[in-house]
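Quick entry between incubations.
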Amino acid sequence: MVSFPFVYMLYTSTQYWIALRPERSFAGLGNYRSVLLSTEFRQSLLTTVIFVISSVAGSIVLGFALALVLNEKFRGRNVIRALLTIPAIIPPAAAGFTWKFLLNRDVGLIGGFFLPLLGVKRALLGDPGWALFSVILADVWCQTPLMFLILLAGLQAIPMELFDAARIDGAGFGQVLVRIIIPLLKRVLGLAVIIRFIFAFTTFDVIFTMTGGGPGIATQTLPLLGWKTGFLYYDLGQAAALAVVMLLITVFFSSTLVRMVKL
Amino acid sequence: MKLEGRWKLFGIVFLVIYLLFSLVPIAWVVISSFKTHYQTLIMPPKLFFKPTVTAYKNVFLGGMGKVFLNSTKVAVIDIFAAMVFGIPAAYSLARFKSGVTENIGFWLLSLRMAPAFGVVIPVYILMRRFHLLDTTVAVNAAHLLINIPFAVWLLKSYIEEIPVEIEESALVDGATRFQTLVHIILPVSMPMVVTVAILIFIFSWNELFFAFVLTSSEGMTVPVLVASLAGSMTFNWPLLCAISVCSMVPAFVFAFVVQRHIVRGLTLGAIR
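Done. Structure below.
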């Protein structure tokens, strides 16, 4: 049952197949050629690279910082942890709407109130560069809690004695972080990056809800291109070919990472 | 690890700023859902206004109750089906070892790595052939493709930790494998079963892409409604906010329960 979609995906990718028409014919690698050589693919690939790198880096750094702070014991910690979890478990579509609403020039708290106070009066989601920045921000907002929870679980597995020993030896927090925490957390960090990479690489909901890939194709990452190809133009063959390409990239990256951190 | 001195100060400031960043957007949507359309347009926004529940009335009297019913139905059937298939499968994988079952983990993971628009193609073609497009059945079929392997993997890792001895005594007393599963393994695994059920509920309730491709009106789920209204030129902001708030209710309920389990779910049991 698990393999069936893959086999079918591979099969579809070798067919000229428009969903609404009955006929289809063998294409060999024709679909792969059309996909990989199109300028739209190259544009989307570039957008995806920017999106993935910034979003992964942003959420890991913020998540790590949060994990360090909330590894301390203080009153209300559990409540704060639960509150921080909320953005990660609301529907991503609702998260996309939330940010679209927030950034709106007429009614949004940011786009309609804070930015005009700073003298900025523009529709953020209508400007290619700012739109990409906004979807990255929204994605970081959704995904940081998950990274925070994973890294916190990792931190709590580090025995306290190590910190005490370092303290007695007179090490400051910066040294403890670089010399003890990060090396010990390497495996967990690696795992977090892999999970986060896979999520960012296949993100659809937030971007689709916020911009639909626009303005133009400024925020169109590969999953949006795939959806457009397969279910707007109904070119199932090309969509499947793109999916196979993306899967290969994912497998390549995660296996490289797995080897790097020796999971 | 105790943060001290300036690090402590940094920590507190960072936490406060992040909490604001994290929660103000949601609070803003919740507040706006109690406004009238005219009130949302007032800038700078007023902190005190006369709240109204008109938007919520419109959601449930305006025919959108059905969408919420669909989502609930999909989620419940998802949980039920994933358990019926998942528990026996997890049990046999945990107890009857072979070379093949050892490496099955990678396969179970692989569907989550693949882009959804590729995975949905076969489901889409099948559902169209059986004239099931735009029904919740189609959405269930697509979700279970992800949820059954997920349930199997988490339950398997849990059952493996249950000592075999408690089963063996039952087997010696003449119980069948099925009886030991139902009367011994299942009660012991209950915490994990509940965890998996909650995680499946969240996945299913939140999932947009499969539902979006497979349904258009009758079988529509909540995220599809949110996404399509947000993408359209509807400017009834309080209504949109009210729908979003309703879609977030499970998250508000589960936030306090699931934090720890999410880690287990995300890493498929690698980190607890």
